[in-house]
Amino acid sequence: MGNARAVWVASVGLLLAAMPVAAHHSFKAEYESDHTTTLKGTVTKISWENPHVLCHLDVKEENGQPVKKAASWELELGSPNLLLSQGWKLSSLKTGDEVVVEGYRARNGVLILNARKITLSAH
Questions:
Q1: What is the per-residue pLDDT for 69?
Q2: What single DSSP character describes residue 56?
């Protein structure tokens, strides 16, 4: 009985440890990694929470072309610790900032972009 219980406890422990891994999908499965998309717009919200910093952007241009109707995109950035270690500050992006963003679009058509490069626009 002791061995069976030890095996059961170990199995449950392994399943619980694997749950965070299963929740995080591969980049290639989620994003169109074969080409980049460039967006230009205004930051409407930014949240510094794990596992990724999220930024919301009202888009005015997509790949250099004006959009007919402003679209709200969600930008997925790196983790807060990664960005801070690369010199970002909590104030690096603020609501109202005009930015140009280059990144990889979600495969499922949802307006999500994995941001690789963000440039503040000159006013």
A1: 83
A2: E
For residue 104, give its domain range. Answer: 27-120
DSSP secondary structure letter of residue 90: T
pLDDT tens per residue, range 62-71: 888 888 888 8
Distance CA 86, CA 118 (A): 13
Distance from C-alpha of 15 to C-alpha of 41, rounded to nearest angstrom? 42
Q: Would you mind telling me the total number of residues written for the chain in this entry?
A: 123
- CA 43, CA 63: separation in Å to the nearest integer? 17
Residue 67 CA, distance from chain mean position: 22
Q: What tens digit of pLDDT does each residue of 37-72 get?
A: 999 999 999 999 999 999 999 998 888 888 888 889
Count up the domains in the chain and report the number.
Answer: 1
**Does 75 reside within a domain?**
yes
